[in-house]
Structures are given as C-alpha cells and as structure tokens.
Amino acid sequence: MNDLAIIILNYNSFDDTSREIISLINENIPTSSIYVVDNDSKDKEKIKIFGTDKNINTILSDHNGGYAYGNNIAVKKAIEDGKKYFLLLNPDIEISLNTIEKLYEDLKEITNLGIIGPRICYRNDRDKIFSDGGLLFPEKGFMGAHSNGEENKKNRKVPTHNYDIDYVDGSALMFRKEVLDKIGFMNEHFFMYYEESEWCLRLLKNTDWKIAVNTQFEAYNLASNKGSFYEYYMTRNRIWLCRMYRGNIKYVTRERWKLARRALKKFKFALAKAYIKGILDGLYSKL
After folding, report:
1. Fewest CB within 10 A of the end CB: N or C in the chain?
2. Is residue 156 located within the same domain as residue 169?
3. Single residue among 224, 245, 260 that ends a domain in this structure
4. Angstrom distance (rounded) from CA 168 to CA 259
C-alpha cells in the first residue's frame, strides 16, 4: 500500500492522536504513509516534536480552518508525494491494519467504487454498531441517521458491502484520487459537520461512482458530548445542504426554532443563541 496516505487531523487531541499513530506504527504501517495535520491548536509544538520523533509527515497549519480544510491540506501534500489512495481518520478512531488493507483492496478491486468506510462500533461497547453508513433525509431538512445505528451487531444480518447509504462517515473514510479529479475537494466553508455528507452527495449526483461501507471489517470510536458549538454548525450546515440540494428548508428551520425556544425556557441561553444564529447564517450567508 505504498500509494496510500493515512491522514489524521489533530485539534487539541494530542493524547488520542499520538495513541492512534503509535498503534498504526506498531502494526508495521510505514511512517511515510502517515500524515498528521495540526489545525493551529494548543498541541502544535507537541505535534511537531512527536512527528519529528516518529518520522511521520507533519503539517502545521497556521489557522484552524475546520475538518475539510485540514484534511484537504494533507491530501494535497500526499498527492505531491505520489499517493493515489487516502484514508481519513479522526484521532479517537481505533482501526487495525487488517481493516485498512481490506478497504484498500475493495477500492482496487471494485472499479466503480469511489469512497468506502468500515463498520464503526463503539470502543466501550464493541458489539454495538455506531454506523454502517450515513443516511440523509432531504424531506426532513437533511436530518441525518446511521444505518443500523445502536443495533447489536450479533442481531444484524447485512450484506458485506452496504451501498444503500448516502454518505460514508468522515471519521474513517477511504477514497481514490479519481474522486478528486471528478468532483474536487471537500467544501471548506462547512468548517465542521456535513462536509463529508455534501461531498458524497456531490459524487453520487454528478458521477457514476458508488460509495459503500464494508460491514465485515470494523473501526471503533468514542461517543462525544454535544454542545452549542455542535448545534450551531449542525443547524447552519443542514440549511446550507437544503439550499444546495433542494432539501426542505421549512422543516429544519421549524425544528431548530422549537429547540431554541425550549432552550430559552430552560435558561440555556448559549444553546438558544447557537440555534438562532445557525438558522440565520444558514438562510442568509453566502454558500
């Protein structure tokens, strides 16, 4: 897999990032295949020292441009280095060499497959599925869901490759360079959340490429707490997606106004502000 780049985006997550990189190196993945990007976080100096010590490709951004921005920087550097396949990993993901190899083989062997991911389960409950691929509902303002999410994997009989999805989760996503040639890079304006969703939709709507999740090979993540930061970007970016792909804007704005009013009644003013600002920015800011 000398033409594969494994890309990890760090933002104040040095412990997870370093754990993940050490795990990859311990599985004999060559350091020349590992790229770590620091999105101008407080960890920048630690990432620089760690990257030099481990002899991995280290990129230090001069500002935090979000998920797509950081990953796009690394992908462009990897292309300069001759890489043709790219695996994007969140720092909290745990993934084996066996799984990485299988995803790589799938892209090599299934010629019309552009993007693939593994089944994602929870690190603290490995029998529970987090996602067998993402689902989007434009009639509900691009509300998202996960195929087989929260199900016990022992109770689910599914095909090896799940093509009946709308996006591959960006926490563990592998793609081929030809995808970039066809539809370009991920949209950096989203900053956080829905950027991989929009990218996959762009691919499915404008090309004959397919996307899939291999349900027989797994990666593991950690559940994260959600707050006002999350709700702002989820609100704004859902509305943006509606504007771009003819989703039901009225549905998402009504839903988010109700959440804002509920937050106000509970004196959660920061949360209410996040919903309201997300609605206004989603409706009126330039895409």
Report:
1. C
2. yes
3. 224
4. 27
CA distances 165 to 2, 113, 145, 146, 241, Å, are 29, 13, 10, 9, 17
Instruction: For the chain, give the longest Cα–Cα distance.
Output: 56
What tokens appear for 92 in the block? 């909290």
Look at residues 98, 92, 171 and name the one whose alpha carbon lies nearest to residue 133. Answer: 171
Q: What is the mean pLDDT of residues 226-251?
A: 95
Euclidean distance between CA atoms 108 and 4, whole angstroms:
11
Nearest to 87 by CA among 76, 69, 110, 71: 71
Q: Which of 58, 91, 124 is the last residue of a domain?
A: 91
76 and 115 assigned to the same domain? no
| pLDDT digit string, tens, across residues 64-110 | 999 999 999 999 999 999 999 999 999 999 999 999 999 999 999 99
